[in-house]
Design goal:
The complex is a heterodimer of chains A (418) and B (231). With 418 residues, chain A is an alpha+beta fold. Chain A has 14 helices and 11 strands. The two termini of chain A are 60 Å apart. With 231 residues, chain B is of the alpha/beta class. Chain B starts with a strand and ends in a 7-residue tail after the last strand. The chains are: A alpha+beta (418), B alpha/beta (231). Bound molecules: adenosine-5'-triphosphate and magnesium ion. The site of adenosine-5'-triphosphate has 10 residues of chain B, from α1.
Chain lengths: 418, 231
């Protein structure tokens, strides 16, 4: 049945008949995202209006940003460089004494462990490595400084690092050594001199030895520079008994599973050696510096201080902004803006500060990283991971400041406005 | 027919216990559609308090208040906030946001309406400013405007959202008499043209003649212009 719809009943108000205004209809609230955008825009307009205050806030966030970046940078660089030596030594597996905490202070183990490891069918080579620190005389100034000496059979090929192949042949001659070109400059311009005039004599542990090549390792916490020589030369210079060694580098057969060999060697060898992969070796050394020293805590403390100071500054700015505009906030409440909306405005301001403070802080840190890396030989590198991590920290810092400042909004009471 | 404002037996007290002070006693008040009501009375008689209750800026304590069809007695915060969006407020001080231009200030009254785009909001705000005679000042900040101009921006803001009711508390207090009269006249004309009722509190005798009805309060009671109870 085709029913004609009844004419719409007269509106409860009929302006055209009564001269009455229609009550304003309930409004459709804006979509959440659009509303967030409007809150952010309002926050930005408010921030922008007070240039001096905005500059202070940005400076505060930048300060926190730079401090955290530098602390993390130094920490990362120190711990990276702490393990430079072990990082550079490449082999499939290592044996070292379970009591050895760090490479600059190794516990010795019997040389026979290297031979015992050869019992495993997949172990191709197991070469002993000697580690020691001895004074090297700077040929220019004549001062002496301890250098890390690594003694092993370079020609065997079990232990690899950049540059070793080129010098392996020369190192087999008596009283020769290769020098780490990334050593700190306190040892003198040895790499430059070598590049200019070829091999020359340098005094190592009171003995004249010939510098015959350059390798690349890098200084670490325990050592300012590195020297590589053959096992035979090492024993001669240090008058050390060959029966006790500091490290064993193991080369596996092609296609062998390091984990399987590691398990077999653990079962095979007595308890005075631990069998480690390269990653485990580096990790162990790193953990020594991170946990065994207060260094990690110092940097953590520095970072937290930076964040606290930054948060206080941002909080002060946000608080002052609210306190200075209580009338306006109360007016907005009277106009029907919810507490939640105004809270989003304040949080929006906090997050805007996080972004506009982070960007210049980040750029400044890129420059500072370069500058510091050049001045201290610490490898400060900006990783995407670190940049993101610091941004999240700064974001959290500003968010916390915003949450604290929001409480001040309660003082904006629309009933007091009349 | 429903009146935009309908109060019955509204009482209100500040403080509690020993300090409790009754400032409104059994107030009955009705504002008819399109009517312009001026509320006067000596200082402390409770005019502002009454206005904050009608404007849903304060929670009711006793009595019944229907404003734009919403019963305020026992209404929750959310319902009150929603009602406020349909009321235009004009304060003694203009309370414009100093960091926004006149046009942006007026547009703030429209940002709660999801149906409007940014362009529509700005266009409507511009039209509103034109209606209050500030077309050429719409991009100025409040600090660059005179007191009367600021109050006119506030009027534009109060009217922009198409409110069902205008509440104003001594809108002329911060203005000289001449300007004050002009501003209220403007408010009245705009409201009349739109059929929006106004409830306006004032001490200013010069603007009394602009009202359709004058209601006088004394010590929390309406002493003149009260509706007869039986209607
Ligand atoms: N927030 C408050 N807390 C406590 N008492 C208040 C508060 N606001 C107002 N009062 C008191 O309530 C009474 C009525 O105040 P109200 O502001 O409503 O008067 P008014 O008629 O608007 O006066 P005026 O003409 O001076 O503005 C006054 O005695 C005042 O002291
Ligand atoms: Mg008052």
């Amino acid at each position: 049945m085709n029913e004609i719809p009844a004419p719409a009943a007269l509106l409860p108000w009929a302006p055209e008949r009564t001269g009455e205004a229609a009550p304003a209809p309930e409004r459709r609230p804006p979509a959440a995202l659009a509303e967030l955008g409007l809150a952010l825009r309002l926050a930005w307009r408010q921030l922008r209006a007070e240039r001096a205050r905005l500059a202070t806030a940005i400076a505060g966030v930048m300060f926190a940003c730079v401090l955290v970046f530098m602390q993390l940078g130094f920490k990362g660089a120190l711990f990276d460089s702490a393990t430079n030596l072990l990082q550079a030594l490449r082999a499939d597996l290592f044996l070292w004494h379970p009591l050895t905490e760090a490479s600059f202070r190794p516990e010795r183990m019997p040389r026979s462990r290297a031979h015992q490891a050869l019992a495993d069918p997949e172990v191709v080579r197991a070469i002993p490595v000697y580690l020691a620190q001895l004074p090297l005389r700077n040929p220019e100034t004549g001062t002496k400084r301890a250098v890390q000496v690594i003694g092993f059979d370079a020609a065997a090929g079990a232990l690899r690092f950049p540059g070793i192949e080129q010098v392996a042949e020369a190192l087999t001659r008596p009283d020769t050594f290769a020098f780490d070109l990334r050593s700190r400059p306190e040892f003198g311009p040895l790499p430059r001199l070598f590049n200019e005039r070829g091999p020359f004599m340098v005094e190592l542990n009171g003995r004249a030895m010939e510098l015959v090549g350059l390798v690349e390792i890098g200084p670490s916490f325990g050592a300012d520079g590195n020297v590589v020589m053959s096992e035979v030369n090492f024993r001669r210079v240090f008058e050390r008994r060959p029966s006790h060694i500091d490290l064993v580098a193991i080369q596996l057969a092609e296609g062998a599973d390091p984990a399987a060999v590691q398990a077999r060697l653990r079962a095979l060898l007595p308890g005075d050696v631990s069998v480690l992969t390269h990653a485990e070796l580096v990790q162990k050394e790193r953990r020594y510096w991170e946990d065994g020293t207060p260094i990690g805590f110092i940097f953590l403390f520095g970072s937290v201080m930076g964040l606290v100071v930054g948060m206080v500054i941002v909080y002060q700015i946000l608080f002052a902004d609210i306190a200075g505009h209580l009338g306006e906030y109360a007016t907005l409440k009277a106009m029907g803006y919810t507490d939640g909306y105004l809270a989003r405005v304040v949080l929006g301001a906090a997050l805007i500060l996080a972004v506009v403070g982070f960007i210049p802080g980040f750029l400044l840190c890129l420059f500072l990283y370069d500058f510091v890396a050049g001045a201290t030989f610490l490898p400060l590198v900006m990783t995407a991971e670190r940049a993101l991590g610091v941004f999240l920290l700064i974001f959290g810092m500003c968010f916390a400041a915003g949450l604290l400042a929001i409480r001040k909004l309660r003082d904006a009471n629309p009933a007091d406005m009349f | 027919m429903q009146a935009p404002v309908e109060l019955r037996g509204v009482s209100f007290a500040y403080g509690s216990g020993e300090l409790r002070r009754l400032v409104l006693r059994e107030v009955d008040l009705r504002v008819e559609p399109g009517e312009i009501v001026i509320l006067t009375g000596p200082s402390g008689s409770g005019k502002t308090t009454l206005l904050t209750l009608i404007g849903a800026l304060r929670a009711m304590q006793q009595g019944s208040a229907r404003v734009l069809g919403q019963e305020l007695m026992g209404a929750g915060e959310a319902a009150r906030v929603r009602l406020r969006r349909r009321i235009g407020f004009i304060f003694q001080n203009h309370n414009l946001l100093g960091f926004l231009t006149a046009r942006q200030n007026v547009a703030m009254a429209l940002e709660l309406d999801g149906a409007l785009s940014e362009r529509e909001r700005l266009a409507r705000a511009g039209a509103m400013l034109e209606a209050v005679g500030l077309a050429e000042h719409s991009e100025k900040h409040p600090a660059q405007l005179s007191g009367g101009q600021r109050q006119r921006v506030a009027i534009a803001r109060a009217l922009a959202g198409g409110p069902g009711l205008i509440l104003a508390d001594e809108p002329t207090a911060a203005l000289d008499k001449q300007t004050g009269q002009e501003v209220v006249r403007l408010l009245r004309d705009l409201a009349k043209g739109r059929g929006v009722p106004i409830l306006l509190v004032t001490h200013d005798p010069r603007i009394l003649d602009l009202a359709d009805r004058i209601v006088a309060m004394e010590d929390g009671r309406i002493v003149q212009g009260a509706p007869e109870r039986a209607r």
